[in-house]
Amino acid sequence: MKSLGKYMIFLGRLVSNREPFRVYRKLFFEECILIGIDSLTIVVLVSVFIGAVMCLQTAFNLVSPIIPKYVISLVVRDMTLLEVAPTFTAIVFAGKVGSNIASTIGTMKITEQVDALEVMGINSASYLVLPKIMAGMFMYPILVILAGFLAILGGYIAGVLGGVITPDEYIYGIRSDFMQFSVTFSIVKAFVFSFLIVSISAYKGYFTDGGALEVGRASTKAVTNSCIAVLIADFFLAQFLV
Amino acid sequence: MIEINNIQKTFGDKKVLHGISAVFEQGKTNMIIGASGTGKSVLLKTIVGLVPPDEGNVLFNGRDFYHSNRDEQKSIRREIGMLFQGSALFDSLTVAQNVQFPLDMLSTMEKDEKEERVRFCLERVGLSGSENKMPSEISGGMMKRVGIARAIVMNSQYLFCDEPNSGLDPNTSIVIDNLIQEITHEYNLTTVIVSHDMNSMMEIGEYILFMSEGKKVWDGTNDDVVHAESEILQKFIFSNKLMRKYKSNS
Questions:
Q1: What residue in B sits closest to A107 (Cα-Cα)?
Q2: Do B102 and A119 touch (CB under 8 A)?
Q3: Is B49 among the domain residues?
Q4: Residue of B115, B74, B77, B66 lying closest to B94 (CA atoms)
Q5: How many independent structural domains does chain B possess?
Q6: Boundaries of every domain in chain A
Q7: Does B71 contact A at CB distance below 8 Å?
Q8: Contacts of A239 (CB under 8 A, 6+ apart)
Q9: What parts of chain A have a pLDDT lower than 50?
Q10: A13 CA to chain B: closest CA distance, Å?
Q11: How far is CA B200 from CA B19, B174, B222, B246, in A?
Q12: Is A17 on the interface with B (CB under 8 A)?
């Protein structure tokens, strides 16, 4: 509870007594590259392969003459939109971006760079963290949309090349019983998860004290706590929105 | 001038500052000395506003920092320059960008003016030609110089230095000490240095405040320090051979 309270106060500091917006503009674009563009490779790889595996596993488990083949791609689509694209990518995102944020801010903390900002009269929490959160919330939904598309594409490639489903059946399955709300749900999740991952990781980094060992610990805690927060949020969002 | 009155600070059960009062005059290099763990750095951080005291106040030319509103505190902070123990340069910025950083954040200067000011400050600390180097490409002494340039770039009135000689060889230490003293006199700054370097104290300490176990034990000038009656101070100063030799010669 104490940590939760400290986290809330930390979030309050991000918006109170912040610097003018012109200061954040350049930082925002730099963070977009760091958080979004630099995560592309891992997101592309993970999405394509997970989509491929999902398709093959579903096909393997749906061996029944009464179940039409297009159900395979329908399952791949729904799993991708509801869980794989927003949640699975969030775990990967926490590992890549969360650890980077925590270790960067943690190192700045132990080398007194954060103190240097404070002495200049700059709100260090706001200056360092707010652009990251804004960039995370801007870029992560884009990554999720991309991950969704690539996972479905991965499923298509694996399914068709593996001979488990024809291209027409796959496309038909993708289109059948499609609910637009699944996409909205996925994007809502993306906003919530990106906020949690970036803010928790920044919080862990910002309150690092000690040396290199503590920076390593902060980085590990950032990833584990972010993942836990994402899974809890995933449960509550499913409760509220479905 | 900086005046500190009855500064007290406790961390958990441990009281680290026991009601310290002092006056640091303008145009002088004021030094806070003492053994490791006596609360020197905490006192310095309290003065610059990084660690709020439990009791007491800090006055910058009569303006009470801890009893001012946020805007007043911000304006006082913008008159402060600080050189950190590890220099605290921003890793991702070049030397020139580090020095220009306070101007980018806090001033309304035009780009050309900023660049001119950065050039001037780097020249003043003897670092012309190193503008485009990254902090990882320069030596410890150079990093301290960049730290000093960054501290004075905003025309600061107050300069704080936390262990400016730590990690430096004796020659570079003297260069840094002299640079700090020259800048203090040249710009009429109120400079406060935390150190346990006896050479620095004897070289540039115009006012010395000696602390032990969070208490102010003695204060005075570097001429008086060797003759001070405090036993703890004498033990601290003459703990090394060089200083004992200096005392016997004087």
A1: B91
A2: no
A3: yes
A4: B115
A5: 2
A6: 41-241
A7: no
A8: none
A9: none
A10: 13
A11: 26, 7, 10, 14
A12: yes
